[in-house]
Each structure stands twice: as C-alpha cells, then as structure tokens.
Amino acid sequence: METNLKTSAVSYGWLTPEYSSLDDLLTRLRAPEGKRNFLVFRDNKYINVPTEKVAFFYVKYESSAIMCFDRQEYFVQHSLDQIQNLLPEKQFFRLSRQYLINFNAVKEVEHYFARKLLVHLIVPAKDKLLVSKEKVRDFLHWLDNR
C-alpha cells in the first residue's frame, strides 16, 4: 500500500525534493494547529496571551474580549468570526453569536427548556450560555469526539 500511495503522491507532484518521503508529506498536509497566542494591549503595554490560557472569547461593548482561566480579561482587535477561523475547531466551539468557548473550560452541561442545553464553565460567564436546539447535536458531537 505504501508504494501505491507514494506512486500517487509522485504523479500528483506532491513529492518534491524537499518533501521526499511520505512522512514529510504527511507532516506538510497535517491540519494547522491554529493561532497559538493573541497580542493584546492593556495598561499601555502589549501582552501575548497564549491560546491555551483562554477560557472563552465573547462580545462585550460591541468588541471581542478574551476571558482567561485566571479570570483576566483582555480586548482583541479581531471579530469573533475572525477568531473562530484562527482557532482549531477541535478545541473551540462557537456556542452563539456572543461566545466561543474552549473545551477545557466546560465544567458541565445540563438540559434546559425547549430542547436547549445550558453550559456551565469553570470560569463563570455573565450570561447564561445556551446551546440552541439547532446546535445541540453538533455541540454534543464536539464534546464527545476528543
């Protein structure tokens, strides 16, 4: 099978001198990990906030904000849509138009009225975090497939 795969990769022009082995090719084709940190401005300083420290992104005063696990809050220059495109889908889920949450921040999920779900995070949010009935299936699939 390896020779068939290598033959196909050569015929499509994927194996070049700098990618001469299948391992190199697979490394090159592997999905990107997403943005590793966000540059924020606070107290007249620029600070790098690592993505793994982010509990959730949300909209506050019509701007995007970061809430970290240590409950530090920062504003970012990206829209929530832009942030969602920069992050890995496996780690972050767009809960609503207002919230993009980190898998590691989910404490528990409970059933709510009208087939919705109520999400409780390790770091509490000011709003009730509800998953619409249209997104329930995708959300549970996201939680289950780790």
- Could you estimate the helical fraction of the residues in percent? 10-25%
How far apart are the first and last residues' alpha carbons, in Å?
Answer: 28 Å
The Rg value, from CA coordinates, equals 20 Å
**Topology-level CATH name of the largest domain:** OB fold (Dihydrolipoamide Acetyltransferase, E2P)
Number of domains: 2
- Which CATH-level-2 architecture of the largest domain? Beta Barrel
What's the total count of β strands?
10
Report the principal-axis shape: globular
Give the integer mean of the pLDDT values: 87
Task: Count up the helices.
Answer: 4
Order of H and E elements? HHEEEEEHEEEEEH
Strand order of the largest sheet: 5-4-3-7-6
Structural class: alpha+beta
Which features does this protein show?
single chain; 146 residues; alpha+beta; OB fold (Dihydrolipoamide Acetyltransferase, E2P); 2 domains; 5-stranded antiparallel beta sheet; 3-stranded antiparallel beta sheet; 4 helices; 34% strand
Give a verbal description of the structure.
The protein is an alpha+beta fold. It folds into 2 domains: 1-30, no CATH class; 37-144, OB fold (Dihydrolipoamide Acetyltransferase, E2P) (Beta Barrel), CATH 2.40.50.40. The protein has 4 helices and 10 strands. The strands form 3 sheets. It has a 5-stranded antiparallel beta sheet, covered by helices on one side. Strands 8-9-10 form a 3-stranded antiparallel beta sheet, with no helix packed on it. Strands 1-2 form a two-stranded antiparallel sheet. A hairpin with a 5-residue loop joins strand 8 and strand 9 (117-121). The radius of gyration is 20 Å and the shape is globular. The mean pLDDT is 87.
